[in-house]
Each structure stands twice: as C-alpha cells, then as structure tokens.
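[stage:ingest] chain + small molecule (adenosine-5'-diphosphate)
[stage:ingest] validated
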Amino acid sequence: MIVETINLTRVYRLGSSEIRALRGVSLGVEEGTFTTILGPSGSGKSTLLHLIGLLDRPTSGRVLFRGRDTSLLSDGERRRLRLRSIGFIFQTFNLLPTLTALENVELPMALARVSPQEQRRRAIRLLEEVGLGDRLHHRPSKLSVGEMQRVAVARALANGPSLIIADEPTGELDSKTGEEVLRLLRGLCEERGVTVLMATHDERAARLSDRTYRLLDGVLQG
Ligand code: ADP
Ligand code: MG
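[stage:predict] done
[stage:export] tokens:
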C-alpha cells in the first residue's frame, strides 16, 4: 500500500459555522494502480486529495505514506516528501503563464536543487514523452487546453514521483482531449509503475481505473 488513510476527518470552520467536509474516510491505494475517487461536486474529493498530498492536515485521523505516519513529520519533512515523491495535476492546470512549457516543467526540479543542465535534459525528455517535443518554448497562452494539461502531467513527473495526484484532470477538457489525458495517466501506471490517484465527478472518467471509491458528503459509499 503506498497510501492509507485512517478515519480521516476535516472540519472547516467559517466564523461560527462548521463544514464537515470529511467524516471518517479510511481507504488504501495499492502501489502501481490507477485509483479513482468518484463523487459529485462538494463531496470532499479535493479535501481528501489535499490531505493525502500533504498540502493540508486533517482535523483527526491519519495519512500513512508507505506505512509512515505523516502526522509525525515536521513541516519540512512533509515538504521534502511531497517534493520527491508526489506530483500534482489540477483541473485548471496551474501553469505559470510567464514561463515556457520547458520552464514550467523545470520548476519543481529547481526547487529540488537539481542542476540546471539536468533540469533541461529531463524536462525535454518528459515533454517529448507526453507528445510535446515541438512545444518546448511555447508559453501556456499559446497552447491548447489539452496541451496545457500534458505540460502539467510532465511537470508532475519532474522529480520522479511514485504517486501522481490528479484532481479533476479532465474537468476543463472536451471528451476526446479528456480521453487522451486519461490514457496518458493510465500509461504512467503501466509503463513507469507510477501510482495514480484521481478525483472526478465523471462516471466515464473512472472507466480506466483499477479501483474506484465513491464519496458522498464526506463519507465513502459501499
Ligand atoms: P469536491 O472537491 O468534491 O467538490 P471539496 O473537498 O472541495 O469537494 O469540498 C467539500 C466541502 O467542503 C464543500 O462543502 C466545500 O464547500 C467545503 N470546503 C472546501 N474547502 C473549503 C475551505 N477552504 N473552507 C471552507 N469550506 C471548504
Ligand atoms: Mg474538487
């Protein structure tokens, strides 16, 4: 198991009101699989992925990464684990508009103190791998949305993560482009042995996954 969550809860406090976004979620993600969290808008998918991706801390419960209890790690240790082992893909890509495709992919490597020559070498290879070898010097505004999401996939792979977390990665894409991104993610499992954990509200997007968890109002179903 690469990730296990144990009875995770997350309560957001807004003034005097409380939103219980997760109400005790326990799940496991097998190494090397494509696992999907399927649920409607507001069911807690992003909250869950942020906790698993160590971007947020739970109100109660635990996230184990390869059996290690991440709640025992310092913020610095969590940041290092995230940088080395986890890649993120977002619905709206989150590319930096002033950087080229190449520079966007190099950025996480710069944060991990990879040498500039090695950054360039790896970024070119990753962009070629996602079919963008002819778009290296384009800025996001010159790319189609499908190309932007492929740059984001290459960026997520920059530091050789074992886990890719994709939050509604096809949400902004038409069905054909979305299908291409799903196949790309599926290929990461099969060819690189990367574990992919994806959230979606789209029943069809879950088709290519090995395992699907259904989330509703912060509770896993079934
Ligand atoms: P999903 O990704 O499935 O749409 P979210 O995890 O974004 O669900 O949201 C789950 C619930 O938590 C929703 O009711 C949402 O409004 C609420 N929520 C999410 N993030 C915050 C936040 N930062 N502050 C307050 N409420 C939030
Ligand atoms: Mg969401």
